[in-house]
Amino acid sequence: MRSKNISISDYTYELPPAAVADHPLPERDASKLLVYREGKIEEETYRNISAHLPEGSLLIFNDTKVVEARIIFHKPTGGQIEIFCLEPPPGHGGVGQAMMQTGTVRWKCLIGGASKWKSGQVLTKSIGPLTLTAYYIEKIDGAFLLEFSWTPASLSFAALLHEAGLIPLPPYIRRAPTAADSERYQTVYARYDGSVAAPTAGLHFTDAIFDSLHARNIRRSFLTLHVGAGTFLPVKSATMEGHSMHTEFISVPRKTIQEILDAPFVIPVGTTSARTIESLYWLGLKTVLDPQVSPDDLAVYQWDAYADTPLVSTQTALESLLTWMDRQEMPQLLSNTQLLIAPGYQWKIVKALITNFHQPGSTLLLLVASLIGEDWRKIYDYALSNGFRFLSYGDGSLLFPRAAEH
């Protein structure tokens, strides 16, 4: 399996700190856009992206909403403890369900200054009439399991975070979040609370761009992948075989799957949308192989796409998935994906990709390289040499693999 033997050192590059965007541009759609097609590079701006998309294309957007996942507590002695909320623990429902809990919730977290939090000590934070309490329970999966409780107990956990938390800017943005980040580190179409990182390719889109897409008969559809902190984890192993891919919760309406099945050209906006779309094929394949598979057992694991499993056409996989959903009376597909997309992966649905520029040695860069091949380095060298801004608040690209043009 070639993908397991990939050396991560072959997918790194020198990223100067000055190339990392630490603030968004004043206008979302003024960001630069690198268009790569047939091996050639062209410079554009996002507000003109519709002119570079095939008419009749279907764009898929991730409508997850970033929650204020960073909570700062101050001890009576003056010490500071920062809690970064990751996800609910296994057995406590999906992210969306856990976000709606009221009064109390258990959550997996990272803790800054954990050594200052003594055993048995309870942390409390008050903001006006709101009081939040945090109890340390145990270590779990490299994180900490905490129990939060709050008053007024009628508030949902999402509403509690909105009042008591801060927007979790990525660790490579070395500044404190401001009020402006609450708007700009969020897509204009964000809908469902649950992410601790933005699906950043979507940050560039505006209502004006949506109008231009409509004028060219380019359709839009939505799905939800709640982005976890694992998206920032570097690959620390020498080869991909030693890397454990993070699992993320996905929610896809039946309508979106049908639209993907019917579309001649599917283009995800962002790696999260791409990962979710491609996961649909592997979920569909599992329903082909086992039509009676239970919803609890239907998920995508890291190496599923590289196993020696008989494959079916994309149409067969998606039609089988829709049939399975109908049998389950499930209008919304709810599942988890750990899918690793790296060079050697055979794309099943995606025909092109809209995405930002990613960190060296990251699984997101591996995903890009799997789509466009070794030209990823030519693209990144060009972007660095021509003033493109990198990472979450940076510029982006529209990438067409050569095979998609034939």
Notes on the structure:
There is one protein chain. With 406 residues, this protein is α+β, with helices and mostly antiparallel strands. The chain has 2 domains: 2-65 and 186-405, QueA-like (3-Layer(aba) Sandwich); 69-165, Thrombin, subunit H. The chain contains 9 helices and 17 strands. Strands 5-6-7-10-9-8 form a 6-stranded antiparallel β-sheet, covered by helices on one side. It has a 5-stranded mixed β-sheet with strand order 14-3-12-13-15, covered by helices on one side. Helix 5 runs antiparallel to helix 7 (314-327) and helix 6 crosses helix 7. The chain is globular. The model has no long low-confidence stretch (mean pLDDT 92).
SSE map:
Blueprint: E1 32-37, E2 40-45, E3 58-62, E4 64-66, E5 70-74, E6 80-87, H1 95-99, E7 104-112, E8 123-127, E9 130-140, E10 143-151, H2 157-164, H3 179-184, E11 192-195, H4 207-215, E12 219-225, E13 248-253, H5 254-262, E14 266-268, H6 271-289, H7 314-327, E15 332-337, E16 353-356, H8 363-372, H9 375-385, E17 396-399
Parallel strand pairs: 1-17, 3-12, 3-14, 4-11
Antiparallel strand pairs: 1-2, 5-6, 6-7, 7-10, 8-9, 9-10, 12-13, 13-15, 16-17
